[in-house]
Amino acid sequence: MRGLSEIAPGVLVGTSSFELTTTTVVAGSEGGCLLIDPAVQQRVRFLQVNLNGTLPELGVFDVIFLRNVMIYFDMETKRQVVARMLSALKPGGYFLVGHSESLNGISDAMRATAPSIYRKT
Prior knowledge:
Layout: E1 11-12, E2 26-30, E3 33-36, H1 38-41, E4 61-66, H2 75-86, E5 89-97, E6 110-114, E7 117-120
């Protein structure tokens, strides 16, 4: 997979367990990538955040993608990171991690809905 710096704004690479609403999110496809509708592009930002520190004020989200990150942390650091991220997740919101990762035993504030997909209770 290419790094974020190599992907043009508005391009989604790969697939996920969620179905994309093609009429509101996907504007087309090109070279195996989905092109995101410009109206959605305007509402998306990519930025670097240190997960071990205080999170910037970003708002509250319906979905948080933290894929292939948790494998690098010990159990206590995972708990701290998840606690910080959960404060930015709406009740009933989804928290996605990589397929080789698990949040079992990390927080009682979520339940698994599918492999690597958790929902805030």
